[in-house]
Specification:
Layout: H1 23-31, H2 39-57, E1 67-68, E2 74-75, H3 76-91, H4 97-113, E3 125-126, E4 129-130, E5 133-134, E6 147-148, H5 149-165, H6 171-186, E7 202-204, E8 208-209, H7 221-229, H8 239-244, E9 249-252, E10 255-258, H9 268-272, H10 281-286, H11 290-307, E11 324-325, E12 331-335, E13 338-342, E14 346-347, E15 349-351, E16 354-356, H12 363-367, H13 374-388, E17 393-394, E18 397-398, E19 402-403, E20 417-419, E21 423-425, E22 429-430, H14 431-445, H15 448-453, H16 457-465
Antiparallel strand pairs: 1-22, 2-5, 3-4, 6-7, 7-8, 9-10, 11-14, 12-13, 15-16, 17-18, 19-21, 20-21
Helix pairs in contact: 2-3, 2-14, 3-4, 3-5, 3-14, 4-6, 5-6, 7-16
Length: about 475
């Protein structure tokens, strides 16, 4: 689906319907949504709309909002996904290379020039890392946000992708590559190894490090790789086997795999690294790779939804998916004769002995898993859009989450709105959920991000130092 080249910010999502509005018409409109019958045309539509969110919600300074239209602050992880989205937009014909180059260069200049230091205010980061949330206007620390090792990692994913994509000889593309080297090289990974060998999650001025460390399988695979692959502050390779020793291998819904309940943990690192056919020692012992592990996690979540042990409304073979997302609010309500607890933002998920489910379904759970199991994820994306129409699938893609069990007016939701007969729907799009939809669909269709990152020295070096072998890494490790 071709889109006229986008000139900049503009447009806004369809305005939320006030509770008590013309819900009969709303439900009829939703049911009437017709989507392209061809999967390629449908995926074009999903990608184009999702890309438009990144392009139009991000200001000229490159500080992509954490959420939109309820814009409050910028998420550095969302910026990483945005930097990765721009090359997709160029290759799909939605923006020009010049437009993407200009936006990317402005973003990298801001992150390189933003002040660093231990002071609690007026700084964007410290020791090369950045605060989880930044003021969207000036790029300084937002409120009491923590210095985040994982969100800096996700930002770096986009920085390194930009470096790999903008390979031209002109001065601007050369500057993009130079800035990427400097931003990545400035990160002092040892700072977050305050309690070695594992890496700590967060730090705050005046308070120091939090107690949580990266252990147990999760989204930090990319962090481990980039920390080992650094040309300036690389951590000792002994970190990696210590990290994998904390995994939990278990069978869930007939799928034996390394468990992590929310699906984002099985998706984020895969946005930038093609794990097909490469194995670390842990996976080699089990005879699979991390790509297959994510496939099993995806299939287990679908099986869980079909079984639906909680008796939630709407769950089924094509309506499923639990991951971190917004929710209707922290309250209890009686649904189908059962008192149930609902949540606001929550790391929803389902795994062995770890069920976090309040009936809230998140489209990025299926969308971010398209490469792993296209035969079930693409029908899920299609079914959710067809069933709920523009209450869920709008001009900027999928709103963040919905809950079919909350379909009666008057319930005490604190975010979003209830459409009687359909359920609760969020009003916002979240950058960290939009990114996997757009980028993982692109990896499924063309492998573009994966192929670019295979050329990235930090990725190759980090994987080799972690002990990965085989597949596309064959002959590339010393």
């Amino acid at each position: 689906m071709a889109l006229t080249v986008l000139a900049g910010c503009g447009g806004s999502p369809t305005a939320p319907t006030e509770e008590g509005g013309d819900t009969a018409t709303q439900a009829a409109d939703a049911a009437a949504m017709t989507l392209p019958a061809d999967d390629d045309a449908f995926l074009d539509l999903v990608q184009e709309r999702t890309f438009r969110w990144f392009w139009e919600a991000t200001p000229e300074n490159g500080l992509t909002p954490d959420r939109w239209p309820s814009k409050t602050m910028s998420s550095i992880a969302a910026v990483g996904f945005a930097l990765s989205a721009y090359p997709v937009g160029v290759e799909r014909g939605w923006v020009t290379r010049e437009q993407a180059r200009e936006r990317t260069l402005a973003t990298l200049r801001l992150f390189w020039e933003a002040p660093q230091g231990p002071e609690p205010t007026g700084r964007a980061g410290h020791r090369g890392f950045f605060y989880h949330f930044l003021d969207a206007d000036n790029g300084h620390r937002y409120d009491n946000s923590e210095l985040s090792s994982i969100d800096t990692t996700l930002l770096l994913g986009g920085v390194l992708l930009a470096q790999a994509y903008f390979d031209g000889d002109d001065a601007d593309e050369a500057e993009i590559r130079s800035l990427a080297d400097r931003i990545y090289g400035r990160v002092d990974w040892s700072f977050f190894q305050n309690n070695p060998p594992l890496v700590t999650m967060g730090w705050r001025p005046g308070k120091g490090f939090g107690p949580a460390q990266w252990k147990g399988y999760d989204e930090s695979l990319l962090l481990q790789v980039l920390a080992l692959g650094s040309p300036t502050h690389a951590l000792d390779p002994g970190l990696y086997p210590r990290f994998t020793s904390t995994y939990e291998w278990a069978d869930f819904q007939g799928q034996p795999h390394v468990n992590f309940a929310p699906l984002f943990g099985h998706q984020y690192s895969h946005v930038w690294i093609d794990f097909r056919g490469i194995q670390d020692d842990y996976m080699a012992e089990r005879g699979i790779d991390y790509f297959e592990n994510s496939r099993r996690a995806t299939l287990s979540q679908r099986a869980y939804a079909i079984a639906n042990p909680g008796g939630w409304r709407g769950y089924g073979e094509n309506v499923w998916g639990l991951t971190a997302s917004d929710g209707p609010g922290g309250f209890t309500a009686t649904v189908d004769g059962v008192e149930r607890q609902f949540h606001s933002y929550w790391a929803r998920g389902a795994a062995h002995e770890d069920i976090r489910d309040d009936g809230t379904i998140v489209p990025t759970a299926a969308g971010g898993s398209v490469p792993f199991a296209p035969e079930v994820t693409i029908p899920a994306l299609r079914a959710m859009a067809e069933r709920y129409g523009d209450n869920l699938f709008t001009e900027y893609g999928y709103l963040d989450a919905f809950n079919p069990s909350l379909d009666e007016a008057g319930m005490a939701v604190t975010r979003g709105r209830i459409v009687p007969g359909q359920g609760w729907f969020n009003d916002d799009y979240l950058g960290i959920d939009q990114g996997p939809i757009l980028l993982m669909i692109e990896n499924h269709r063309s492998g573009m991000i994966w192929e670019l990152m295979k050329k990235s020295p930090p990725i190759v070096r980090g994987l080799c130092r972690a002990g990965y072998r085989g597949g596309w890494l064959e002959g590339r490790c010393e």
